[in-house]
Amino acid sequence: MDAVCWHSVFFLLFALAACGFALAVVVSTNVVRMAFSLVLSLGAVAGLFFLAGADLLGGVQLLVYLGGTMLLLVFGVMLTARGKAAEMKTTPGWWLLALVVGGSLLAVLWQAAFSVDAWSTPSAGATQSQAARPTAAPIGLALLGVRVDQPLGEEGGEPVLSGYLLAFEIVSVHLLVVLVGAAYLARAQRRPGTTASEETAPRTPNSQLPTPNS
Amino acid sequence: MAEYLTQYADPRLANVIAALVHCGLLLAVAVGAAAFFNWLERKVSARTQDRLGPTRVGGRFGWLQSLADGIKLLAKEDVIPAGADSPLFRLAPYVSFSAAFCAYIALPFADGWVARHLNVAVLFILAVAGLEVFGVILAGYASGSKWSLFGAMREAAQVVSYKIPLALCVVVPVMIAGTMDLVAIGNMQRGWLTNWFLFHDPFTFVTFLVFLTCVVAGVNRSSFDLAEAESELAAGFLSEYSGFRWALFFMAERASMVAVSGLAAILFLGGWNGPLPVATWLHLVPESGLLAGWLGNLLGAGNFLFKCLVGVVFMMWLRWTLPRLRIDQVMTTCLKYCVPLAAAMLLGAMLWTYALPGGLLPGGRPIGEVPEGSAAVAASERGGR
Questions:
Q1: Burial grade of B3 (CB within 10 A; 0-12, 13-18, 19 or more)
Q2: Number of separate domains in chain B
Q3: pLDDT tens per residue across span B17-56
Q4: Which of A163, B228, B292, B381 would suit a FRET pair with A6, their CA atoms being 20 to 30 Å apart?
Q5: Is residue B320 part of a domain?
Q6: What domain range includes position B21?
């Protein structure tokens, strides 16, 4: 190692950013700042993906989580965060609950991460046992249409390419149809006065406007 | 480049220098484009309205106008309204600009001339270009003004909606090419202009028109610039900004205009491959030597930048000619016309590629084969896909 290990430098940079902004989400009391910290935290995670060479995963992280989910979240928060709703006070009970839930998740993940041989310091015979371990990879590949658990075709036979891709796609299209239907039903049943409180926010941009820091 | 520099310098230093040179070049393109298009926009708008535009600064044609504008903006007072959320208000312009600038990381300017050769460059550019809206939303919220908030709301609704047809349009050339690598996509369209994906089949031609509409809406330009509608929202999310922060928003807008024009040029208009195979006639291809290949690339980069320029001028022309749409018209255009049209074109292009892989004319080269001798061949062999 003659050169500065830029990989580690950037890894630490992105990791610190991800953790720091994740903490900021918890500590901050302003809803919009929380949402924006979450954006930056997820962005830093995307940076980690790019750093690891997983360009596709990083791009999808940016596109789906930041460009899609977080955009809608920020949009929703911006519309609802007015006056008192903009400040979120967490009571000690919530802190306790969050610590218990988050702590147990962290414990599980910690355990899982350090049980992967490839991630711990290499020891003798670590690489041999790795292949035999059951992983989630066959399921993931099968969802993409590749069945690694089935033999890849006999002599002259066609390779098995069925997988669960079609079922997966049908389920997602079905979900989309359900969403469209729900939106249609919600629109059709609205009558003036009865469901005013349940109306979606963008349709009634009323005069109450957010006043940050008020 | 880092490998090249390692011959002369410490590898540690070489990496840093290579990274700095790449960053510097890209920043020069982004900021230079912003300054140049600032001047050009003044001239184009003036000519559209039968005026002269800037004529004095810097001698003929007022070509130093951008510099004068820059000095003026830097000297302006940076006002932050009392009701604003100060940290977010300060941060918003940087978010916008860095998102717009990030798209250049994966944008190739010629065969192999790209800061970071990603094999999912299309996805990356789409993803990053979509993040610019965060800056606008933050600006709108943090300004603490109703005009700004309305602007931000419109922007969010518009960008989220237009992302869908935009992605569908981008899928068409990606499907034809069989790769998301922009360098490979550009190289596939080598030769005459009939090799451009624009003329690949009738469906891609229509797709390009839909893509243009969505791109203009995506970079928030007139006639889709509802977020900063001067006449109704008093500049929308920009209302409370002044000085350098305001300029950053404009630089972001111009930079992303160039970036999406470049994306359009690569996906549909052949990228750095001109209407005529001039580089091949002049034997400026990588096979005839390092210098010839480099000169050919330089020619290609000029060609590519010219296409970007045409794209940006097209957007300016639209802005100063057409009236602004209403928000419901914007949504109708997207959801009732662009999305179904893009989906139908995707299906059509799919069937066309399936039925006529070689094109209508006999002896056509099946698209999807990268021509020999380009840098992308070696790169794609290295990186898979």
A1: exposed
A2: 2
A3: 777 887 888 787 777 877 888 888 888 888 888 887 777 7
A4: B381
A5: yes
A6: 1-75
Q: List the one residue out of B80, B75, B105 whose CA is nearest residue B90.
A: B80
What is the pTM assigned to this prediction? 0.74
In whole angstroms, give the CA distance from residue A16 to residue A20: 6
Confidence at residue B230, expressed as pLDDT on a 0 to 100 scale: 64
Domain identity same for B263 and B368: yes
**By the 8 A CB rule, do B81 and B240 touch?**
yes
Specify the DSSP element, H or E, that contains A38.
helix A31-51
* Residues in A lying within 8 Å of B, measured between beta carbons: 2-4, 6, 30, 32-33, 36, 39, 43, 55-56, 58-60, 62-63, 66-68, 70-72, 74-75, 78-79, 202, 205, 209-214
| Domain end call among B16, B42, B75 | B75
CA dist., res. B262 & res. B108, Å (int): 9
Rounded Cα gap, residues B238 and B245, in angstroms: 9
**Token match 């996805």: residue?**
B123
For residue B56, the number of C-alpha atoms closer than 13 Å in the C-beta half-sphere is 1
Position B80 in a domain? no
Query: Do B268 and B312 lie in a common domain?
Result: yes
Partner residue opposite B85 with nearest CB, options A67, A205, A213: A213
* Measured CA angle at B14 (ends B9, B18), to 5 deg: 140
pLDDT in tens, B208-230: 888 988 888 877 776 677 666 66
